[in-house]
């Protein structure tokens, strides 16, 4: 009895110390956003206090108006949307076609080229970026969205790999039945495969959304005209210009992050499942 | 009969290649040609406007006489040495804490995971203010308990470590991968160990860690390649300073390629980085036979 009690209190202690640790970590992960929100609502003279005020008073919602005056959020946002949705379209079209070929069609050298494709994942971006840049200079595409969008129409190895994994779970008999009925491969792909594979396509669209929306180096290399800047260039630029107006800065940052947070709430379960799949399962 | 069979094979090949053609074309234009071209450029002096001029290994020797390049390389090795192990520990600890069901688990998971979705450029601007030496919240809270906090990003000695810390807000992705791996461990293993009188610590080292080692291998490769290419955070927050203490390899490469248009030298840097990260990944792979455990896979 005594032993059992001690055991119980030990479990309780380990449970609560675990909870304390979880709470501390959660606070650490929330703190930058708390600080961002708090600063975005501060009056100018409350910014440079030492030690700082944690909760602003009075609340200055005006900061958001000011930030959006100096920070053409909607233009940046629109540019980000155009680039992102362009690449999503390209990725879905190209990756699904190629994945179909690598999973459901039989042709000479298929496995060899599949391994070549997987191998290219190892190549750092910087090894290919300079010749790519020169190609785009020669095409006259600098300072357009094209260098950021067009490559996605030629497939992304990781996404092709993931879609292929999913395609392989579709039984061949299903396709053979359609082939016997005289359907062409393209019809089978379009009318049998794609409808069955909506979940994985949605997942790939999510991954590509994050990749494009968060891309900083690409736009930095290819875009020179401010009116073409996406959010990834606009926000750091605001920092350079109005860096001492931290309340406006944080209001701009808050406005930039909100779409991602909303996005997360809608896509949460898909994203978490997807990252697990891409991480481990072969 | 035989003829029609081979004709069918030919048609099959054609259809297969046709479906894969987006990748084939992209591979040639955006991967194969650029790799060879940048290898060639790395032996030339090339500023885009004039055709490349062959200078042999000139760019490579120039790099190792360039003290700023050496510094950027050293900084990057320091980033790798910080980001990879710290990211592993943080990701694993979060996974271990949040893997078992308890009340409110999804809330904590979501809250810790969201920062990894926030773009690095936004994280960078927020962190700059968060770690501001005099008016930021970190040193503000430290001053409440009487600690005079460091200058963080403005201190040569602290700047790389601070960037490594900031990168940990993205640890949610690693944690998810580990949670998936830990969930796959059959419970009987722990029950058997418990019967044998093993404690939690022993179970972690003898059961959990070996079984999730494939996830660790995956993490190490992805994280190493990523850490070698660190760019966004230092570029936005410090621009490489103070005194080039946070200048990363890719930042320096970016400067040469896209500010000074030194395409030859930048290509040499790109290829050297490629070789170094390839060697490291190979090393991880070859040693992995000794520590990665594939026992539970059928």
Description:
Chain A is built from 13 helices and no strands. Chain A has 282 residues and is mostly helical. With 298 residues, chain B is mostly helical. In chain B, strand 1 and strand 2 (53-54) form a beta hairpin. In chain B, helix 1 (2-41) crosses helix 14 and helix 13 (249-259) runs antiparallel to helix 14 (263-291). The two termini of chain B are 42 Å apart. The model of chain B has no long low-confidence stretch (mean pLDDT 91). Chains A and B meet through helix 1, helix 3, helix 4, helix 5 and helix 11 of A and helix 1, helix 3, helix 4, helix 5 and helix 6 of B.
Summary, kept brief:
The complex is a heterodimer of chains A (282) and B (298). By secondary structure, chain A is mainly alpha-helical.
Could you outline the blueprint of secondary structure elements for this entry?
The complex is a heterodimer of chains A (282) and B (298).
Chain A: H1 2-40, H2 62-70, H3 73-104, H4 110-119, H5 125-139, H6 146-149, H7 157-167, H8 172-180, H9 185-196, H10 198-213, H11 217-222, H12 231-242, H13 246-279
Chain B: H1 2-41, E1 44-45, E2 53-54, H2 58-65, H3 67-98, H4 105-117, H5 120-130, H6 137-144, H7 159-167, H8 172-183, H9 187-195, H10 200-211, H11 213-228, H12 232-237, H13 249-259, H14 263-291
CATH class of chain B: Mainly Alpha
For this structure, the CATH topology of the largest domain in chain A is: MetI-like fold
Structural domains of chain A: how many = 2
Work out the number of β strands of chain A: 0
Mean pLDDT of chain B: 91
Q: Return residue spans of chain A where pLDDT drops below 50 for at least 5 consecutive residues.
A: none
How many helices of chain A? The count is 13
The CATH architecture of the largest domain in chain A can be given as: Orthogonal Bundle
Widest beta sheet: strand line-up of chain B: 1-2
**SSE order of chain A:** HHHHHHHHHHHHH
CATH class term of the largest domain in chain A: Mainly Alpha
Element-level helix/strand string of chain B: HEEHHHHHHHHHHHHH
Fourth CATH level, the homologous superfamily of chain B = MetI-like
What is the averaged pLDDT score of chain A?
87
Q: Could you describe the largest sheet of chain A, including whether it forms a barrel?
A: none
Task: Tell me the span between the first and last alpha carbons of chain B.
Answer: 42 Å
Briefly note the structural class of the backbone of chain A: mainly alpha
Largest sheet of chain B: 2 strands, antiparallel
Count of distinct strands of chain B: 2
